[in-house]
């Protein structure tokens, strides 16, 4: 195979309303600290949709999304020590950062002011902009690749690289433990992982959903209760009830109805919406010393931690495996909430 550069097959779009099509992209030649990964599986996140469709601002086209990547290492640079050929490896959102700021030195690369997203971001090494995991191969520095233990369900572990770490990180930061009351807003790719992870800590979990069909599903995942947003009586009953609420909804929504559910010193952490949150009265926060916070993915060390934690506790995503020619349909089904709970593309087919 050689040390590259590599011309590889990928699946992308040429505009915000286009369907996915096969295309050829270039991956850089291996540098001494790089690994070349033969991509086997890649999850589909709502963020992929937002970016490919220019919903978070104009995208660079062609756009090849994908940031929940798992595959097999097929080549390593001369200075690589973390991986050997034939190891399994994962790549999440982060493929570069400055390495010297306070955040990087604290294993918080996701808050580095100069971190690089795995796709549709300026490529500081090769120039132009980069491409994600809807492709056959990827080259990445070994520091930003995650060790995937042998013997795990590889496609079902791919979503841990975003959905898993995005919900694991606030559970870690706010120290969720046995007996705490945790609310989860939304039961999609992120939400179902939040439920599984909080339940594994023996927390008392309640799910909030707008989909009547997901009420029973939430209980099957281990939640004690599932409540429809429209159920005014249930919302009133749960006033001042929760220690922590994790919002996984991918778009802005009126927050005050959920802030009222926090007990004194409780926190609502937003991990899903990057646009404007609505209805946040100062009185609701001050009357209970409540906090409204945000969290985004996790650093590389913490992403390795969630991979190891889920392996040890037999936690994995609930997925639907698809072929590359089904990506366009899958995007539409995610928007229509027609998936339980994560699409994963089989790139070995």
UniProtKB/TrEMBL annotation:
UniProt cross-references to PROSITE patterns, sorted A to Z: ADH_ZINC (PS00059), D_2_HYDROXYACID_DH_1 (PS00065)
Family: Belongs to the zinc-containing alcohol dehydrogenase family.
EC number: 1.1.1.2
InterPro entries: ADH-like_C, ADH-like_N, ADH_Zn_CS, CAD-like, D-isomer_DH_CS1, ER, GroES-like_sf, NAD(P)-bd_dom_sf
Gene3D superfamilies: Medium-chain alcohol dehydrogenases, catalytic domain (3.90.180.10), NAD(P)-binding Rossmann-like Domain (3.40.50.720)
Cofactor(s) the record lists: Zn(2+)
Superkingdom classification of source: Bacteria
CDD domains documented for this protein: CAD1
Enzyme class: oxidoreductase
Organism per entry: Pseudodesulfovibrio hydrargyri
SMART domains (UniProt xref): PKS_ER
Name by which UniProt lists this protein: NADP-dependent alcohol dehydrogenase C 2
Pfam family name, one: ADH_zinc_N
GO MF, one annotated term: alcohol dehydrogenase (NADP+) activity
Keyword annotations of the record: Metal-binding, Oxidoreductase, Zinc
Domain Enoyl reductase (ER) as annotated: residue spans: 15-345
